[in-house]
Design a protein that fits this description.
The complex is a heterodimer of chains A (655) and B (350). Chain A has 655 residues and is mainly alpha-helical. Chain A is built from 26 helices and no strands. The model of chain A is unreliable at 1-20 and 637-655 (pLDDT under 50). Chain B is globular and about 75 Å long. Chain B has helices spanning 35-42, 71-78, 101-111, 127-131, 133-138, 142-155, 171-184, 201-218, 229-235, 253-258, 263-269, 274-277, 304-312, 332-340, and strands spanning 9-18, 45-55, 60-65, 86-91, 94-95, 112-115, 189-193, 221-226, 238-243, 246-251, 297-299, 318-322, 325-330. The chains are: A mainly alpha (655), B alpha/beta (350). The structure holds adenosine-5'-triphosphate (ATP) and magnesium ion.
C-alpha cells in the first residue's frame, strides 16, 4: 500500500479513508497498467507475427493426403473392412428401411400414422397438431423431402437411443463410467454441428449413411447425460428400500430406477429428437437428402423463395415432434379405447393412401417461391434504408475495428491478453487450457481465420447477452411480460438452428452481419430464459429482507437479485457464447467468412477438404477455449470486495 | 461359524469406516484414535466402532444416540445394506458377512425386513402394490401377493386406501404402509430406523402403540433405532446407547436410569421421571433399628409410582420382596425423594 492520495484539506475520518479510496485504486491499478502495456505493444508490433492465412498451408495438404489415403485403403484396411464399413452399412440400412416404409405408406398413410401416434401420446389436440403438420408438408410442396428428413431423424434417434439410453442408465449407476464419459460429453456438447461433418466424410464418405452416423453421434450426448442424471437422482431411500427387501440389481432397475426416472428420460428423448432434427438439416452439406438440401441450395444462391417452404416445413416438423414427445412424457399407459382410436386413425390414413396414391395430391400444393421472392424483394427495397444502416453500423463500428485489431496483432499479444483475461476471470487452470486451445489453431494454419471467427463470436455474444439480459431481467420483474414472452421463447427453442439464417438472409443479404444476427437470435432465447430463471429463483426471503430495509425496486435488483443470481447469469453467458459460436460457424454459408466458410468450402471442393477438416477442428478448439473461460468464471466464487484487511492499512497510514 | 447361543442377532467387533482406505483402520493402531483425530489423520469417519451386542429372539432391542452417532449405519450393517469394514454378524445362526449375494438376498427377502425413517415407498405405485412389493421381488404370483397385501392393509388399519398413491397419504399412513410392506414377508427380525421421527407426537404415540401390539401378536424380534428417549423407554426391553460409533452402555431402562455408565448417559437420562422407570429394587434399604416390618409387602420389580397407592394406605414402611424373601424396606419419604429426583437414602443404589 504505497499510493496515498495527496491531500491538502484536513484529513477526513480515518475509517472512510482507509476502506474507500485506496482499495478501489489498488484494485484497478494492475488492470490499468496491463491495458496500457497492451495498447503500447499493439502500436509497436502491429502487423508483425500475424500468421496470415494460406490456402495451401502444410497442415491442409497433410489432411488432404490423409483423405486420399483413406479413400485408397477403404477396402483394404481392417479397421474399415470390419468396423467402419459395417457401421456405414448398418446406419444406411436403417435409414433406407425407414425411408422405404414412409414411401410405401405414402403421404396419407404417414399422416394417419403420425395422427394416431399423436392421439396415443396426447389425445385429440396432439393428433390435430400432427395432422395439420403433415398437411403443411404437402401444401408446401415438400412432402418427399420431408419424408426423407423424417426417415433420417427417426433412424438417428433410434440409434442414439438404442446406444444412449442403456449407456445413460449405466452411467447413472456407476460413478466410474460417469467420470469417464463426462469430459467426452462436455466436448461433444460444445462442438459446433459443423465440426462433426468433416470427420464423417473422412470415415463414412458422403450421403445419408454418413448423415445418420453424424447425427447419431451428435444427438447421443443429451440422451446419455439426461438419462444418467435421471437415474442418479432417483430417490436413494426408494432404492435402499428395494435392496432391503432383497431385490437383485436388475429388479431394482426395473421396478424403481426406470419408473421413477421415466419422465426425465422422456425429456432426454425429446432433446435427442430436437438435436437430431437440427443436425440432419446441416448434414445436407454432406449430401444428406431432405429439407436441408433445399435450404442449403437456397442459402448458397441467396434465394429465399427457394428455401422458404423447406424452412417452414422444418419448423412445422420440429413443433410436431416436440408436441408428440412432450405429450408422451406426461401421459400414463394408454387405455384400450385410446389404442383403438389410434389404430382407427392410422387405418384411415392407409386407406386414404390407397385412394390418393403415394404422393400428396399435386393440385393441393401452393407454389410459394414466386410470391415469396417478390415479397422479399419488396421488403429489401422498402426497408433498405433501415437494414442497410443497421448492417453498416454494426459492421463499421464493431466488426471491422475488432477484426482489424485481432488479425493485425501479433499472435503472442492476442494469446497474452486472452491468458490474462481468462486467468483473472476463470482461474489459472482454465486459462491455460483455453489459451492452449486457442494457440493450437496456429499450427493448423488457421490463426487468421480463427481471429475472424472470434470477432464475429465476440460481437454476436455481446449483442446476444445484452439483449437476452434485458429481456430476462424484464420478464423476471414483470409477470405479464414474462407470460407474453414465454411462448415466443418456447417456439424459438424448438427451431432447428438452420432456420434462423432464413429471415436474416432475407433482410440483410449475404454478409458477415447476417451471420452475427442469426447467432444473436439463436442464442437469445436460452440466455433470456436462464437469466429470468436465475433471478426468479432468488430466495424470496432475501428480497423481502431488502424491501423491509426500505430498498427501492432498483436497489433490490442491483444489490440483491443480480448478485444472488450471479451463477445463473454466468451460465447464461456460457450458453450464449457456445450457441453463438455454433451459429456463427454455420453462418459461413451466408457470407460469414472465417472458419465457417472454410468448413463449407471443404465440402464443396475436394481440393479444400484438408482446410475444411482443419477448420472443423479449429472451431472445436475455439469452442473449448470460450467454454472454459465462461464456465470457469461461473464456477468461481465472487471476487471479494477488498482483498486486504482494511483496518491494517488504516493503522499504518495513521502512523 | 460363530456360536449364536440361541440369539436372534449376534454382533461382534463390528466396524464401519467411511473414507479412503477404510478397511485398514480397524486392525491398525488408528482404531484407538478419538474420532476427531482419526478424521484429521486419515480423512475417515468411524461411523460404527467395535460394536458387540446380542439380541434375544422375540426381544425389542432399542439403539439410541444423538444424531451422527452411527445408529443408522449400525442397523444397515446388519443386513449389509452398508458393507461393514470388520467384525462378525450372525442372524439366526447364519453368518451374514460370509453370505454370498444370493444368500444375502434370501436373508433380506425372508428373514429380515426394514422400516425406514423416510418410508422409502415407491411413489409410482399404489398402496397395495407398495405393500406387495417385497413379495413381487420374491416372485410370489400376483393373486397370492395381492391377497396377502390386503390382509396386511387391514392389519395396519388402512382399509379402503388400496389404490391411493403414497403422496396422497399423511405421514402416519405412509409409515403404516412401510410397516405393512416389511411385515408382508413374515420376517423373523424387523429393523426400524427412526421410523417415527418424521411424525408428529400424537401420531407417533399411535404408531408406537401399533408396534407394541404387533410385537405382542406376532412376536417378531425387533431392533429399533431412535433418538427419542421416551420412545426408547416405552418400547425397549434393552437399550444400547451409542456415542461416536461405539456403545457406551447397554442395559434395561432401569439400569440406564439407575446406574448411568458415564456423564453422557447421565445427561441423556437426567430428565426421565425416575419414579416411572425405576422399581422399588433401586431404592429399598435395610430397615433402621426399631423400624416395624409388618407393613404391606410389594415385589421388588414394582415401579415406584405404582407403590404410591399402597404407601398412601399405610403409615408403615413397605416391605420389598424378591423371590419370596424380604430384601429391604421403603417408606413414604424414600418414595417421595425418589420421585422428586433428590438423592435417596437407600442402599440399593450403591
Ligand atoms: N455414506 C456415508 N459416507 C460417509 N460418511 C457417512 C456415510 N453415512 C454416514 N456417514 C457418517 O457416519 C456417521 C454416522 O452416521 P449415521 O447416519 O449412522 O448416524 P445416525 O446416528 O443415524 O444419525 P441420525 O440420527 O442423524 O440419523 C456420521 O458422522 C456420518 O457423517
Ligand atoms: Mg440415522
Amino acid at each position: 500500500m504505497t499510493a496515498s492520495p495527496v491531500r491538502t484539506a484536513p484529513a477526513p475520518p480515518v475509517l472512510s479513508e482507509s476502506t474507500g479510496v485506496p482499495a478501489v485504486r489498488d484494485r484497478w491499478r494492475t488492470p490499468a497498467a496491463a491495458v496500457v502495456a497492451t495498447v503500447a505493444a499493439y502500436l509497436l508490433f502491429r502487423g508483425s507475427a500475424t500468421l496470415p492465412h494460406d490456402d495451401e498451408a502444410a497442415p491442409f495438404r497433410l489432411l488432404g493426403d490423409l483423405r486420399e489415403w483413406v479413400d485408397a485403403n477403404r477396402n483394404a484396411s481392417p479397421v474399415f473392412l470390419f468396423l467402419v464399413n459395417y457401421v456405414r452399412l448398418f446406419a444406411g440400412a436403417v435409414n433406407d428401411g425407414l425411408a422405404l416404409l414412409l414411401r410405401e405408406l405414402g403421404w396419407a398413410g404417414t399422416a394417419g400414422l403420425a395422427t394416431g401416434i399423436g392421439w396415443l401420446a396426447g389425445g385429440p389436440r396432439t393428433a390435430a397438431t400432427a395432422l395439420a403438420g403433415f398437411c403443411a408438408f404437402g401444401v408446401l410442396g415438400v412432402w418427399p423431402q420431408s419424408a426423407d428428413t423424417l426417415a433420417l431423424v427417426l433412424a438417428s434417434v433410434l440409434l442414439s437411443l438404442l446406444l444412449g439410453l442403456p449407456l445413460g442408465v449405466w452411467a447413472g449407476r456407476s460413478v466410474r463410467l460417469r467420470r469417464l464419459l463426462d469430459p467426452v460429453l462436455d466436448v461433444m456438447q460444445i462442438m459446433p454441428t459443423f465440426a462433426y461433418l468433416a470427420p464423417m466424410v473422412l470415415f463414412f464418405q458422403i450421403g445419408p449413411a454418413a448423415a445418420v452416423v453424424a447425427t447419431t453421434i451428435y444427438a447421443i450426448a443429451p440422451a446419455i447425460r439426461i438419462t444418467a442424471l435421471a437415474v442418479e437422482r432417483v430417490s436413494p431411500s426408494a432404492v435402499e428400500a428395494s435392496a432391503s427387501l432383497g431385490a437383485t440389481r436388475w429388479q431394482t432397475l426395473r421396478t424403481v430406477h426406470l419408473p421413477l426416472a421415466r419422465p426425465t428420460i422422456a425429456l432426454a428423448v425429446g432433446q435427442t429428437v430436437m438435436m437430431a432434427l437440427s443436425m440432419v438439416v446441416i448434414a445436407a452439406l454432406i449430401a444428406a437428402p431432405g429439407l436441408g438440401a433445399g435450404i442449403v441450395t437456397g442459402l448458397s444462391r441467396a434465394d429465399v423463395g427457394l428455401m422458404l417452404p423447406s424452412g417452414v416445413a422444418l419448423v412445422v416438423m420440429a413443433v410436431v415432434l416436440d408436441r408428440i414427445v412432450t405429450a408422451s412424457a406426461r401421459s400414463a399407459v394408454p387405455a384400450r379405447s385410446t389404442l383403438v382410436g389410434a389404430a382407427a386413425l392410422t387405418l384411415c390414413g392407409v386407406a386414404a393412401s390407397g385412394l390418393l396414391g403415394n404422393g400428396f395430391p399435386p393440385g393441393w400444393t401452393l407454389h410459394l417461391a414466386g410470391p415469396v421472392n417478390e415479397a422479399v424483394t419488396w421488403a429489401k427495397f422498402s426497408w433498405y434504408g433501415v437494414t442497410d444502416a443497421v448492417r453498416n453500423l454494426t459492421t463499421e463500428a464493431l466488426l471491422n475495428p475488432l477484426q482489424e485489431v485481432l488479425t493485425g496483432s501479433p499472435w503472442w499479444l492476442v494469446a497474452g491478453v486472452a491468458l490474462a483475461v481468462a486467468w483473472r476471470g476463470a482461474g489459472p487452470r482454465n486459462a491455460v487450457v483455453a489459451v492452449c486451445c486457442l494457440l493450437a489453431t496456429a499450427p493448423l494454419g488457421l490463426w487468421q481465420h480463427t481471429m475472424e471467427t472470434l470477432t464475429t463470436v465476440l460481437v454476436g455474444t455481446a449483442l446476444a447477452l445484452a439483449a437476452g439480459f434485458t429481456l430476462g431481467v424484464a420478464s423476471a420483474l414483470s409477470p405479464r411480460f414474462s407470460a407474453a414472452l414465454r411462448p415466443l421463447l418456447d417456439a424459438a427453442q424448438t427451431m432447428p438452428s438452420f432456420v434462423y439464417l432464413l429471415p436474416a438472409l432475407a433482410l440483410f443479404g449475404a454478409s458477415r452481419f447476417t451471420a452475427v444476427l442469426a447467432g444473436v437470435v439463436y442464442a437469445l432465447p436460452p440466455v433470456a430464459r436462464l437469466v429470468q430463471d436465475g433471478i426468479g429463483a432468488v430466495s424470496p426471503s432475501a428480497v423481502e429482507a431488502a424491501r423491509s430495509c426500505g430498498s427501492t425496486e432498483w436497489q433490490v435488483l442491483w444489490k440483491v437479485r443480480l448478485p444472488l443470481a450471479r451463477g445463473a447469469i454466468l451460465l447464461a453467458a456460457n450458453q450464449g457464447v457456445v450457441m453463438t459460436l455454433a451459429m456463427v460457424v454455420v453462418g459461413g454459408l451466408v457470407g460469414g467468412g472465417g472458419l465457417g466458410y472454410d468448413v463449407v468450402s471443404g465440402f464443396a471442393q475436394r481440393a479444400d477438404f484438408g482446410m475444411g477438416l482443419a477448420a472443423g477442428v479449429a472451431t472445436v478448439l475455439v469452442g473449448i477455449a470460450l467454454d472454459r473461460i465462461t464456465r470457469g468464471a461461473a464456477g468461481r466464487p465472487a471476487r471479494k470486495v477488498s482483498r486486504r484487511f482494511p483496518g491494517k492499512t488504516g493503522k499504518k497510514r495513521i502512523a | 461359524m460363530v456360536p449364536s447361543g440361541g440369539a436372534a442377532i449376534e454382533v461382534r467387533g463390528l466396524w464401519k469406516i467411511f473414507g479412503p482406505g477404510a478397511d485398514r483402520v480397524p486392525h491398525s493402531s488408528l482404531a484407538r484414535l478419538p474420532p476427531a483425530l482419526l478424521r484429521e489423520r486419515t480423512g475417515c469417519v468411524a461411523a460404527v466402532r467395535d460394536v458387540t451386542l446380542s439380541v434375544r429372539p422375540g426381544e425389542v432391542f432399542v439403539v439410541m444416540g444423538l444424531s451422527g452417532s452411527g445408529k443408522s449405519t449400525l442397523v444397515r450393517c446388519l443386513t449389509r445394506l452398508v458393507e461393514p469394514s470388520a467384525g462378525e454378524i450372525t442372524i439366526a445362526g447364519q453368518d451374514v458377512r460370509a453370505a454370498t449375494p444370493a444368500q444375502l438376498r434370501q436373508l433380506r427377502r425372508h428373514r429380515v425386513s426394514m422400516v425406514f425413517q423416510h418410508f422409502g415407498l415407491l411413489p409410482h405405485r399404489g398402496v397395495l402394490d407398495n405393500i406387495a412389493y417385497g413379495l413381487e421381488i420374491q416372485g410370489v404370483p400376483r393373486a397370492r401377493r395381492r391377497r396377502r397385501a390386503e390382509e396386511l392393509l387391514s392389519l395396519v388399519g388402512l382399509d379402503g386406501f388400496a389404490d391411493a398413491r403414497p403422496d396422497t397419504l399423511s405421514g402416519g399412513m405412509r409409515q403404516r404402509v412401510g410397516l405393512a410392506r416389511a411385515l408382508a414377508c413374515e420376517p423373523e427380525v424387523l429393523l426400524f430406523d427412526e421410523p417415527f421421527s418424521a411424525l408428529d407426537p400424537l401420531i407417533r404415540r399411535d404408531m408406537q402403540a401399533e408396534v407394541t401390539r404387533l410385537h405382542r401378536e406376532v412376536g417378531t424380534t425387533m431392533v429399533f433405532v431412535t433418538h427419542d428417549l421416551s420412545e426408547a423407554l416405552r418400547l425397549g426391553e434393552r437399550i444400547a446407547i451409542m456415542r461416536d460409533g461405539g456403545i457406551v452402555q447397554l442395559g434395561t431402562p432401569e439400569e440406564l436410569v439407575g446406574t448411568p455408565a458415564d456423564g453422557h448417559v447421565a445427561a441423556f437420562v437426567r430428565d426421565v421421571p425416575r419414579g416411572e422407570v425405576l422399581s422399588l429394587r433401586w431404592i429399598c434399604r435395610r430397615p433402621r433399628d426399631g423400624e416395624r416390618l409388618d407393613g404391606p409387602a410389594l415385589a421388588s420389580g414394582t415401579v415406584i409410582r405404582d407403590a404410591v397407592p399402597t404407601a398412601m394406605g399405610t403409615a408403615l414402611p413397605i416391605v420389598v420382596v424378591e423371590n419370596g424373601r424380604a430384601v429391604g424396606v421403603v417408606d413414604r419419604l424414600d418414595l417421595l425423594s425418589a420421585m422428586s429426583g433428590l438423592p435417596t437414602t437407600g442402599a440399593g443404589r450403591a
